[in-house]
Amino acid sequence: MLLLLTKKALLSRPGSTLLLLFVVILGTAAATALAGIYGEISHKMALELRSYGANILVEPDSPDGSGHLLEEDLARIKTIFWKHNIKGFAPYLYGAATVTASGRSERAVLAGTWFAKPIDVPGEVRTVQGVRVIAPWWSLQGGYPAAADEAVVGAALARRLRTGPGGTVTALYQGREQQFKVVGVVTTGGYEEEQFFAPLPTVQGLLGMEGRISRVLVSALTVPMDAFGRTDPQTMSKADYEKWYCTAYVTAVAKNIEEALRGSRAKPVWQIASAEGALLTKLDLLMVLLTVMAVAASATAVSACAMASMARRNAEIALMKALGADSYQIALLLLGEIVLLSLLGGCAGYLLGQYLAELVSSRVFSSSLTSPAWLFSVAMVSAFLVALLGSLVPLRRALLIEPVRALKQE
Amino acid sequence: MEETQVIIRTEQLGRRYGAITALTSLDLVVEKGDWLTVMGHSGSGKSTLLNLLGGLDRPTEGTVQVAGQDLSGLSENELARFRREQIGIIFQQHHLIPYLTALENVMMAQYIHSVVDEVEARGALERVGMGHRLRNRPGELSGGEQQRVCIARAIINSPALLLADEPTGNLDGGATRMVLELLRELRAEEGFSIVLVTHNQEVAAWGDRTIQMDDGLVIRDDLVGGTPA
User: For chain A, which residues make up each domain, given as ranges?
Assistant: First the structure.
């Protein structure tokens, strides 16, 4: 009978019902679309932020960071627990050498690195690692080295040596000499402009440090740090440690890398990690606020529609009260309508919201969106919240109707 | 009179709305199974009395007992329960829900009371001569037919007291007589008491007893002594 009363009550005023349904659908669709693209936005933003520099620095585990790591261990980074979050890494071997070009000579930092090196790890997809991956923001005049004797010179150093693409630079280290062909000049606005970059094996040979590296810069996708993430893992219980280890905090990923590389110490590059975390946290907050605003706006609209609808139903409710319906029965009848509207509005809003999310994803991010299963729950909860919040005031008014007065006004 | 024989007992019952006194110090006792007619002009207090007896309003003075229950101390939900279990109401304007059929209107009263029984609801409509109009909506029924559906709805839960507020006020002579005959028959079968409010002297003659009200006071209390043939 409740279903019959609910159905007939809704069908008896198609205009109001359709308007209510429309508002519930809009609110649900907005919430669903925002929730749907939320993951996508966060992911894309995180990837975007990764292009602004590495967020983890791995050094030899000595008090002053001196000593060396082993190049042969680097592939292990792609085998760790958080391997899918590692977007790129680049090793560096530093040495102070005398560089000479165009008759000018000076002591400079010679940096051996990978520019774009394919890495094969058994059981894993082949990846390319190096500075081209972790520092796509480098502004390069010319190109990257393709041969062992090619190099990239920092812009400031190149100006002083009066060299550029096509030029030649000779590097001298403890009596060993290597001639490089300059293929590019790099501008970064940072310390890189003072350095001389050459392929890692060549620099290792020149410095006499085959198989060794000074440090590794890693670019990893991480989640914003919160109070739990900042807790010292050494003070954690076993359960908390597992939870921390299994959350992609920059500290947890760094710890994971540290375990993979012998004799290493990995630490977050805090200016990058913090800025990234703050930005992603603000983005999260913005998305939550937008979702809440969409639900609140829809609930307000539902409230206005429901009030108008309820005003036309005063006599019906008064009659039911006169016949003996108590507050619970009246509330149940009206809630029945809310649930029915929520179910219909939730399903329709889900489909519309999913379509909108896919539209935004393809137009803004140029990628297809796979809606997670939980999005349907978000849609139904949003629909119910919109309908319920919007009906609270009308429901309260309905419960306060005085049957005698309302029936007399009919 | 033994308390078990009394359906209504009011003592110094009064109702004021601000400065306006609608009912003053009414002492009234009605026996079970009686048909009491309340007469009076507009504003005399007869509808106020009906509302107080049905637990739709609360007295500002005195007490009102119906079917052994003192209504003064009941909460809103307890009053609602009292109405669905003890009271049947017939309105002048019928107040049927327009989008429900005759049968569904009666079943709605069952739903409010306890459980829905379509066979029983159908039986109630057949008893009031509406067995052929079960699937019609109120808009498709005449005034007399609507009032018969209203009576079926009022008796479906076997009330102890039937309150009728100008039940024939909108009906022509033929329909009025049909409704009153129906009430008389049903009262004989079911044994409920009736309090009927009317302006019409002829309608009043159908009851066992008539009280005349004016300005919130009972000014006359007559035993009619039978119903017209």
Answer: 2-46+278-409, 54-268
Q: How confident is the model at residue A125 (pLDDT cuts 50, 70, 90)?
A: confident
Inter-chain residue contact A329 with B81, CB threshold 8 Å = no
Mean pLDDT, chain A, integer: 86
Nearest to B108 among A5, A404, A407 (CB): A5
Distance CA B143, CA B141 (A): 7
Q: Which residue has the tokens 């018969």?
A: B148
Considering only CB atoms, A326 lies closest to which of B80, B97, B110, namely B80
Residue of B nearest to A323 (CA): B84
Q: Is the Cβ pair B80, A324 closer than 8 Å?
A: yes
Inspect the interface and report whether the beta carbons of A320 and B51 lie closer than 8 Å: no
Query: Which one, of A232, A135, A119, lies nearest residue A190 by Cα?
Result: A135
Q: Name the phi and psi angles at A233, rounded to 5.
A: -60, -25
Residue-wise pLDDT for A304-356, tens only, equals 777 777 777 888 889 999 999 988 888 888 888 888 888 888 899 889 988 88
Domain ranges of chain B: 33-60+82-223
Beta strands B20-31 and A104-113 are: unpaired
pTM of the model: 0.64
| Chain B residues closer than 8 Å to A323 by CB | 83-84, 89, 108-109, 112, 153
Beta strands in A144-239 (DSSP E): 150-154, 168-173, 176-187, 195-199, 212-213, 215-220
Domain B33-60+82-223: give its CATH code. Answer: 3.40.50.300
Instruction: Report pLDDT for B178.
Output: 87
Report the run of H or E that residue B114 belongs to, with start and end: none
A249: which strand partners?
A223
**A327, A329, A410 member nearest B76 (Cβ):** A327
Q: Is the pLDDT assigned to residue B106 strictly greater than 70?
A: yes
Touching B: A residues 320-349, CB under 8 Å:
320-329
Residues of A in contact with B54 (CB under 8 A): 322
* Integer CA distances (angstroms), B89 to B16, B74, B198, in order: 23, 19, 14
Say which of A12, A325, A410 has its CB closest to residue B112: A325
List pLDDT tens digits, range B180-209.
Answer: 998 999 999 989 999 999 988 889 989 999
* ipTM for this prediction: 0.90
Query: Measured between CA atoms, how close is B228 to chain A, in angstroms?
Result: 31
Beta-carbon count within 10 A of A13 CB: 15
Do B108 and A407 lie within an 8 Å CB cutoff? no
Test A404 with B77 for CB contact under 8 angstroms: no
Question: A-B interface: how many C-beta pairs under 8 angstroms?
Answer: 67
Joined together, the tokens standing for residue A374 give 């939980």
pLDDT per position as a tens digit, A290-299? 888 887 887 7
What string of DSSP letters covers B9-58?
EEEEEEEEETTEEEEEEEEEEEETT-EEEEEE-TTSSHHHHHHHHTTSS-
